[in-house]
Amino acid sequence: MDLQGTIAVITGVSKGIGKHLSEQLLNKGVIVYGIGRNNSIHHPHFTFIRCDVRKQADVDAAFDTIFQDTHNKVDILVNNAGLGYFGLLEEMPVGQWHEMFETNINGIFYCVRRVLRTMKQRGEGHIINIASTAGLDGMAQTAGYCSSKFAVRGFSESLYKEVREYGVKVTCVYPGSVKTDFFRNSPVIKAHDNMLMPEELASFLVQALETSSNFHQVNLEVRPLMPKGRKMYE
Description:
With about 230 residues, the protein is of the alpha/beta class. It has one domain: NAD(P)-binding Rossmann-like Domain (Rossmann fold, 3-Layer(aba) Sandwich). The chain contains 5 helices and 7 strands, in the order E-H-E-E-H-E-H-E-H-E-H-E. The protein has a 7-stranded parallel β-sheet, with helices on both faces. Helix 1 links the parallel strand 1 (about 5-10) and strand 2.
């Protein structure tokens, strides 16, 4: 896809992957609409819309505004908003369980359903859903988070088979640990330099968006090579 002049909607733009991806796409000439709770990007082709993706009414209002500006045209949707809580299952507050599912999977559904019809009618578009390697392998004390990301995986794989013949791409991305504030809710894991860098992951997503119309990357798994640091050979 030639990105110059295309229109992208990115959720979770306040920090981390979403912020870096927005900035890199803006440098490519993309018109970016950022959905989130706080704005830290200032660019003539960037529009921030305050929105809680857990709430369907918020999402619908955001897309009403976007479609009014773009005449119902969105070329790229990146569902990046997400969060995780960690700990023993029997100790997890019910509210945290619901918050993960409402953000990590319900928010994706609310956004995708608004762009899908116009993408199919135009015969093109690219939807990227940010899952996690936690959507590939279950881990202790992450039952809620893993469950929500497994749901993203199933959603994405089903959707790509539903829309591929209309010329619409659906890509699910499975990053390993990324150096962002995602781990603010973890009592054990803290962000460090051996994790993936968000700007490098964002660059990887830009490359996926720039592929030709018949080149479809369905699942992208990316991990830090040495998450615990380099092991010395003796």
